[in-house]
Amino acid sequence: MAFSIIIFISFFSVLLSATSTNIISLGEGAEDSETRLKDLYQEILRDEAVLRLQQLGQVSDSDGYLERTFLSPASVTAGNLIRQWMEDAGLRTWIDCMGNVHGRVEGRNASAEALLIGSHFDTVIDAGMFDGPLGIISAIAAVKVMNICGKLGMLRRPVEVIAFSDEEGVRFQSTFLGSAAVAGVLPVSTLQISDKSGLTVQDVLKKNSIDITEENLLQLKYDPKTVWGYVEVHIEQGPVLEWAGFPLGVVEGIAGQTRLKVTVRGSQGHAGTVPMSMRRDPMAAAAEMIVFLESLCKHPEKFMPSDSNCNSSTLESLSSSLVCTVGEISTWPSASNVTFTVDLRTINDMGREAVIYELSDRIYQICDTRSVSCTIDRKHDANAVMCDSELSSQLRSSAFAAVKRMRGEIQSELPVLMSGAGHDAMAISHLTKIGMLFVRCRGGVSHSPAEHVLDDDVWASGLALLSFIETQL
């Protein structure tokens, strides 16, 4: 039934494309023409987009829940579907040697710097259907409207939609496989990383008839001189937009991130025979550290003096953007050793280092006081990425126009948000300037079957992208 609906929509779109340039000459006034175009936008940007998101949401490697990891059978099926939809929108398509799906139109000047629009189509395990695919489907829908209206060939620069093959990093525990390759920052050694079954990235590519070598991996990198900028639409993965009552928000930047592994070593002691004054309990020490972490990150200004290393502006940034969590705690054997992980994110890299210093200093103090030993290992670091001010301004205007068109008058500005989660835009920032739009999601829930975006918010994201692409006419 869904396939029949798609055929009908495609047929309707082609028919309207053939007649749209003659709407007014056939006797309709400008107001009727505008009504017809509004209906078209809803048909493609909302109804068809939602249908396609639902269709992708059924393409899974598991029964009963959504799972699509790097170049799995479901991922290949999803990539082929996306490629068909790109072609339906009037784009020339190809799949590169890292499994990324590309759709491109050259516009009036094929040698001009290109606008890239993208997101990812892989998922976490037991995922929702919007994280990643929303950005791809909204972009394809916007391009399709441009094509139907006869404007696609009038663009002054090439526009390329990219569906990245891996952002979540579930299969190989290495994020941004697709976008990092395009940006030219994927290490060649990544090809030899193994999944749980022992297959390497290179093995998986060969199983899918992609014979990748060091040379053609390096050839995937886009020349920065050929790219004008990158735009990504993504669900917020947080509750701010829902709380503010807006479907869209502009992203000012993506938080930097540090992951620590803290190991606390004490000694086992009989629960009833070792006096409290002589106990070396690592669990109690770890608990004190975790509680301090929470206090530090809720109120950094109370623990960090305003000096040259952490001035007032840095403290202000930390107060609004710092998020710290403990993801895992384990004990072995019994309770003589305790390890826990710390995930620390903020938009301010200098502030992040200051927080790590303060946290580390207090952890060592706690260990000394409690007569236990501890080690702190930095397992991952990524610097914050700021969105380009020009792109952000254009996206803000486009999003404002989209929301105003749907709601009428708007009394306040669209929210400006920080992203605490990583996105393909982080990798692409090594290639070109970036801009992002967030889309409201119910309850801020993501990476879950409960992930949900309203149909009209899908429409709003498509309208905003359409308005933004039209700035390239």
From TrEMBL:
EC top class named in words: hydrolase
GO biological process terms, semicolon-separated: purine nucleobase metabolic process
Recorded catalytic activity of this chain's protein: allantoate + H2O + 2 H(+) = (S)-2-ureidoglycine + NH4(+) + CO2
Protein known as: allantoate deiminase
First and last residue of the signal peptide: 1-18
Pfam families the record matches: Peptidase_M20
InterPro entries in alphabetical order: Amidase_Cbmase, Bact_exopeptidase_dim_dom, Peptidase_M20
GO MF, one annotated term: metal ion binding
